[in-house]
Design goal:
The structure is a homotetramer.
Chain A: H1 2-11, H2 14-20, H3 28-31, H4 35-57, H5 64-81, H6 83-91, H7 94-97, H8 103-121, H9 130-150, H10 157-171
Helix pairs in contact in A: 1-6, 4-5, 4-6, 5-10, 6-9, 8-9, 9-10
Chain D binds a DNA duplex through helix 3.
DNA sequence: AATGAATGAGGGTTCATTCAT
DNA sequence: TATGAATGAACCCTCATTCAT
């Protein structure tokens, strides 16, 4: 993951991965089918773990504000524990490899569902169309997380969460 | 640009580029130093053209709302005219190639400057730290533009602009 | 062909073929899809050329003896001109590669047709079943040709032809 | 033997052989020096067993016809009991491996000796040179046996023997 | 004696780049 | 200036063989 996060699928050789793991070249193939499959598996597994983490964080809260906050906390915690993975998922030549069922699209669709609900309840600002807004919120989250995971000293955990919450709440409706 | 946008730096061969341009393989090297340099040049040139477009759009307006709107319009127009380029800049194994002086960072720093100004004037919501907020806004813009440029029928030009303006204004302060 | 004749498909590397042709490794792939395909093409092309040669030699003669002789001459001439090819076709890990639609089966079926005709005319010795006899005659021809092409000094052209003719005539019926 | 008969020396891995024998990969090397040696040993042992079988069958008969028949029966019986081995010996990338002291040459030399004897007694047809005729007869035998062992339902045991006897007798002289 | 994970040399293939024409 | 055949370094992957357990 470290190597893929730094240099991408094509920038890393199978020899480097093996050597990085302290084993011989051939040993790589005792554990993984091939380089592309390993990468794809990392992405897919990571995406579903992230999705599960988010989903779980949304179970309890009922108020919008609490829900948004819970989600932000979950995402930030995930990023803290999976620094390399986050860079792979959001650093994103993931798209190029065809490996990912679009982590971003996955997150975006979560947002989109929430926005549709808000629209139904009349709490969504009129000028916000659900689809593009969902994409914008997903992009915002991804970028923030990715930027932060490249160097966690750039901002405190709390600042990240507060920014996420504020912007998401704003995007998720909250007529002014 | 079309090829790079579709398949990324590593997914395209120099032969394909030449053939796509209707010339022989060797001719490629009469025009470009090598494939990586071409890619880098596309990214850098594209980034500075985008930056210039944004900067120009910000010259006249004095009010925040007008300024944000002008910027959104400029970015959207740029994306319309440079569909492939936008996918290269934001689709983003740009980061991996080391080719880019971070288009996103460039955009982010524009936002950051605005946020610092807002903070000085006391109009920035307290919970928003300038640096991460700037990243979030940049990520939001990039994602929205990229998503849209993959298939312009996904949303109307206007919806994109309205979403951008609303979310940016919100992020840029506007205490509630 | 020389290399394949000497060491078989698996015993020859693509690098050796290139080097043997006085070109660099990559050049091989400008001319052939890959090593296995080249081998297969050699076998298939060789088989059909041999079949065509045999077929042509059988056009004119009407008497059995003349026909058998014409065929023997054709096969021997082919072997003289295509020493390496003959060793590939009959030296025979051809079967292993799945490359060949069985050159031998092809030749055998020619014989089988002739034997069926002989049977219909009542000139075939009773103890000879067409199918196995055809295989035997084909194997005989192949072996003789292969053995000779490994070292043409082993026997004169004429000895080969005479042996072939005599044995084939015998096999093809000629009740005693 | 089954694996080698089906796919040849190069088409079988040492792992497959071990797995086919129900032991672990390393165990293979407790029993055999290496894959190539195993193959060579199979071929050499098989060839000498076949040679011994033939030699034994030729001990008693004194008449040519009886001798030829005894030999044919011996060979066919051997093929019936050693289906895989026969395919290895005659299916024949045996030659390529350098493993075999030429089973065919071995058989051929038996025939050649008989032919020389016939020549000395003046019973050999003038047009048949001993060496090429011996090769032809050996090839005929090998092909017939091999063809039959690939699918014993192709012909009855008796048909094979009768064809062999008839053709060999014819080749072995029998002036007309 | 058996295991099976580990090794690493070797081979097939690709492709960025060159250069004689 | 344009060509495109040729180059050869580099990469992915396989598999015969070893050896600590």
């Amino acid at each position: 993951m470290r190597l893929f996060a730094q240099r991408g699928l094509h920038g890393v050789t199978s020899h480097e991965i093996a050597r990085g793991a302290g084993v011989a070249s051939g040993t790589f193939y005792l554990h993984f089918a091939d380089k592309a499959t390993l990468y794809q598996d990392i992405v897919e597994d990571g995406a579903s773990r992230l999705a599960a983490t988010i989903a779980k964080s949304c179970e309890k809260p009922t108020e919008v504000a609490a829900l948004v906050r819970a989600e932000a906390v979950a995402v930030v915690s995930f990023a803290e524990k999976n620094q390399h993975l986050v860079r792979i998922l959001f650093g994103s030549n993931a798209r190029i490899t065809g490996a990912c069922a679009e982590v971003l699209d996955c997150i975006a669709s979560t947002f989109e569902a929430a926005l549709e609900r808000a629209r139904a309840q009349g709490t969504l600002a009129d000028e916000l169309a659900p689809a593009p807004t969902a994409q914008a919120l997903a992009g915002m989250t991804a970028r923030l997380i990715h930027w932060w995971s490249q160097d966690p000293k750039r901002a405190s955990r709390d600042q990240i969460i507060r920014s996420l919450v504020r912007l998401q709440l704003c995007g998720l409706g909250e007529k002014r």
